[in-house]
């Protein structure tokens, strides 16, 4: 999706949820295919509404200018429309398969000028419920993009009985009072059977284990969702639902994701007092297994050291995702001796370097690294 979603709905970037909802409602009436509107335009405004009406999706869109629609579990465009207008409106066909409010909830009811009411499939062929799970990935896997195995236990239901709450329709009529003598009706999904029209017993199931190879896009932010089509539990007579995986980062020994920018990485660099005052060189092992040198020369003026940054932001060394690359934020932690020895001002050279003992960090002088040295005295 390349066009501006705010322009698609005709609202500004500061529009609140109610303004977005109002704009979509107006455009949906104009472009709905059953009113002679443009199906493609109806699809565009529905996708725009799906993203901008969701706080998390809107935040990602505002930050990156795009949303990965291929991995997003998109609702049916007509379902979005129905959530605004209930079951049906004059002059609008194809509004669902459950029956017309005010006419006894009879399925398949036709009205002049309204066309067929059976847009959706019958309850028995509706898509089965999906599953929401977490996919744990390492920062190294996210940095380079990879395919990871995911173990899932799938149930297969072998029998069913008709739901008595909706008589097998999968939907029921819901009435709501809007005031004295004013009632409104809408068709809603039956909760006991989750809209299927059937009930399933746990005793009539078998469980199998399957390992799915899940492609993890390079740099995918934590919390993003990956959809694995047709891998949820199996129900007789219904299309198998999808597995929705929420990406969760595993804890790393050295790096951590930033809470400010999902593409930034953070790490802490411990320094002894002598390193802080007399200079140091550290070699940092990055997630792509290359190394980066961090250098503070020994002749740096004390005033510059004491007023210098407690962190260093290194651009283009974070995650890369959809054309955007984050930064590596290094935070320096000075470890002061306790108690401070007498005559410490003249004994700084004797305060040996003892803070670096980590597989991702080493104290070296000279040698070659994979990236240009970061000189802190030139910040």
Automatic annotation (TrEMBL):
The record's annotation in SMART domains points to: DnaJ
PROSITE patterns in alphabetical order: DNAJ_2
Polar residues bias spans: 359-371
- Which residue intervals define the domain J in the entry? 4-65
Q: Which UniProt keywords apply?
A: Metal-binding, Repeat, Zinc, Zinc-finger
GO terms of biological process kind: protein folding
**One Pfam family in the UniProt entry:** DnaJ_C
Instruction: Identify the stretch(es) annotated as Disordered.
Output: 359-379
What GO MF annotations does this protein's record show? Hsp70 protein binding; unfolded protein binding; zinc ion binding
Matches recorded under CDD domains: DnaJ, DnaJ_zf
Checking PANTHER family in the record gives: DNAJ-LIKE-2, ISOFORM A-RELATED (PTHR43888)
Protein name as catalogued? J domain-containing protein
Record organism: viral metagenome
């Amino acid at each position: 999706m390349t066009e501006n979603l705010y322009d698609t709905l005709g609202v500004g970037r500061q529009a609140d949820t109610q303004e977005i909802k109002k704009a979509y409602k107006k455009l949906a009436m104009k472009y709905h295919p059953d009113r002679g509107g443009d199906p493609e335009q109806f699809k565009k405004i529905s996708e725009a509404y799906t993203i901008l009406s969701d706080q998390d999706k809107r935040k990602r869109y505002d930050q990156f200018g795009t949303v990965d629609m291929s991995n997003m579990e998109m609702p049916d465009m007509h379902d979005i429309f129905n959530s605004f207008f209930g079951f049906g409106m004059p002059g609008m066909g194809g509004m669902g398969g459950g029956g017309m409010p005010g006419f006894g909830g009879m399925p398949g009811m036709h009205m002049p000028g309204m066309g067929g009411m059976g847009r959706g499939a019958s309850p028995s062929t509706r898509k089965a419920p999906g599953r929401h799970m977490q996919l744990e990935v390492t920062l190294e896997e996210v940095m380079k993009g990879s395919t990871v195995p995911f173990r899932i236990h799938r149930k297969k239901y072998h029998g069913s009985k008709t739901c008595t709450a909706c008589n097998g329709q999968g939907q029921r009529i819901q009435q709501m009072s809007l005031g004295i003598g004013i009632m409104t009706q809408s068709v809603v999904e039956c909760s006991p059977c989750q809209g299927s029209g059937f009930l399933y017993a746990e005793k009539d199931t078998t469980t199998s284990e399957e390992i799915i190879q899940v492609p993890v896009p390079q740099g995918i932010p934590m919390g993003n969702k990956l959809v694995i089509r047709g891998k949820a539990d199996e129900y007789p007579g219904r299309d198998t639902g999808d597995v929705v995986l929420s990406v969760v980062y595993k804890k790393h020994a050295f790096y951590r994701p930033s809470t400010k920018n999902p593409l930034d990485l953070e790490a802490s660099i411990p320094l002894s007092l002598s390193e802080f005052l007399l200079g140091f060189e550290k070699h940092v092992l990055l997630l792509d297994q290359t190394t980066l040198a961090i250098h503070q020369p020994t002749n740096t003026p004390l005033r510059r050291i004491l007023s210098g940054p407690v962190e260093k932001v290194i651009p283009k060394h974070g995650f890369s995702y959809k054309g955007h690359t984050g930064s590596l934020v290094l935070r320096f932690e000075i470890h002061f001796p306790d108690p401070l020895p007498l005559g410490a001002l003249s004994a700084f050279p004797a305060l040996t370097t003892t803070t670096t003992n980590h597989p991702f960090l080493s104290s070296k002088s000279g040698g070659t690294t994979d990236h240009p040295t970061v000189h802190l005295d030139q910040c």
